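FAQ
Q: What does a multi-component entry look like?
A: The components come first, one per line:
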Amino acid sequence: MKKQLTVALAGNPNSGKTTLFNSLTGSKQYVGNWAGVTVEKKEGILNYKDFNINVIDLPGTYSLSPYSMEEIIARNFLIDEKPDVVINIVDASNIERNLYLSMQLLELDIPVVIALNMMDVAEKRGYLIDVFELSKKLGTEVVPIVASKNKGIDKLLDAVVNTKKSKSNNFIKYNNKIEKKIKEIENIIECNDSKYDLRWLAIKILEQDDIIIKEFKDIFKEEAAATISSYLDDESQTSIADGRYNYISNVLDDTIEKTKEQEKTLTDRIDDILTHRWLGLPIFALIMFSVFYFTFDLVGNKLLNIIDSFINNTLATSVNDMLITMGVSEWLNSLIVDGIIGGVGGILVFLPNIACLFLAISILEDSGYMARVAFIMDRSMRRIGLSGKAFIPMILGFGCNVPAVMGTRALDDENDRLVTILINPFMSCSARLTVYTLFAGIFFPNNEKFIVFSLYILGILIAVIAALIFKKTIFKGESSPFIIELPPYKVPSLKGIIIHVWDRLKGFLINAGTLIFGASIILWFVLGFNLNGPAPIYNSLGAQVGKVIAPIFKPLGFGDWRSALSLLSGIVAKEVVISNMAIIYGLEDASKALSVSLLENFSQISAYAFMVFVLLYTPCIATVGVIKKETNSWKWTIFSLVYQFVVAWIVAMIVYQIGKIIL
Amino acid sequence: MPLAMTKSGDNVVLKDISWGHRLKKRLQDMGLTPGVEIKVVSGNNRGAVIVSLRGSKLVLGRGMAQKILVESIG
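Then the predicted structure of the entire assembly, as tokens:
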């Protein structure tokens, strides 16, 4: 029987935590959510010697103050679940800030092993770190590793399994005034049993920790609560942060030797260009355009054609032939070939484009560029009343609005967060790409990338206008303060990128296999039947529903029941718009290619208006769900559904009506 | 003077943060404690400010930089 061990992985953002987690657990990971919130929770199992180790990846944090959801999650896990060991990953090349979290972990009642990561980078910078001395000074095991090259992992695991279940006694001594106050508070709260360590609790009270203080005001008698309130002042709070940093400086003075004069690092030199006052913004625009060029022209569309001809010619024909030889009845054949292969296959062909887009976004994120975007965009974003940081969820929205809406958690101000959530669905997600790719390819051959790029720009423009209106009316106020660390640039690891892209593609494939598969079958039925039984398609239930809502879209240039029905079902998932069209036109006349049917039903202008409508209208149910979860309000959720539909209708109508006059 | 008024290349020390305790705490956790030396990497551009302190680089939004008081050390 193997011994069980629970290990939590804690560390700053950008410290290489995810890399270490991946190299510890490999493919044996499972991703869920922390209870009650949408922050991702990653766990993995690892067998080492006689141990069966369950590794929990805590959210990356700078501190254990309850400032952000991530910090609260990390802290609650450590206190409530009491893992056997905490691996604290510390970036050796940014050791001063990283040790600030370590100081707080050492104050908890849990054994800590420090994994000193990126030793190679630190050495290149001329840092000579005396690991043995550092370990002695901190009173805990320190193991040097290079997570990206899998170096030192076994030594780290040895240290983890051999850690004695005792707390480090080597805690920081704060200045005399603070130590006196700690003693006094300890005396006041001593009589209460709680899950917290007394000294830790006293320190948190002095740090004016809102959550702890509130919890204690509920428990304590009024008198004691009042006494505790008298200890709350900014000076003590400052002294504690100061005390930790001073302690770190002292430790580092004795353990690090800097052999090189501080010179400009490669990151500094790259930043001189990429965050340049005038060049920063044009370079960013150029990078975004390259992303689209890569996603369409360079790679995406070439692969798309190969998959398209495989599914729609090779696969559909051979399955059809096979079903005929097997003597399967005609309706079942139609369900499989027209419904399932037509519907699900109609979406799968876009897999390469979506993979390319996510690949590009992961590279931007993992290389460290994304954090710079917040700086570059701050000036422009302030004009619409938001901070530069609010631009990051907007870019993530190009991939998928669901994680992007979750990403708004990083914003500190509630109003800013709401505005950013409400405008996020205007950022065109990769599912909508399927519609543009198909339509632009048919109606604007050779100019696809300009047409698609124009839609993305239009989405941003509408988002900006919406944000301006929101900030001027419902959510008045200045842009919220923000602070972000700029990590050193690095070449993203292939493994990390693959895991990232695969995670997203998996979501897309699961969507295709469940939602779109189901929607395709339902659609096949509503198109083949009405309430009286089997019916020709123009008389089917689907056509009837489509005909009822179609007049709404008449002023937009596509008031035909097929488009109306596709748009309605597109609320399930935006890809369904395309899979539905493939099924409808396929059922009507199987001999005609989808492109031919579309050319008969749309003009260039109405096709563009259709794409504009798809870009802007009501988001898919997954996005609606996450908006509900993140705003925690039905009011805002329903509001976002309705206003987006209205905006989409108005803009598409203007596009169509003006386009008609000009052309 | 507020950090927002500094220029690229300035070296300053932090004097005070005129903000409520929650945001103050956040900044202190990120290393902005009184007396810390700050090098302004990119300032004076009406937008956010990039600073370097305690061995790493931070971007501070314009609004935040206006409430951080610093003193020049040349």
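Q: Is there any commentary attached?
A: Sometimes. For this entry: Chain A has three domains: 3-162, 176-258, 282-477+499-662.
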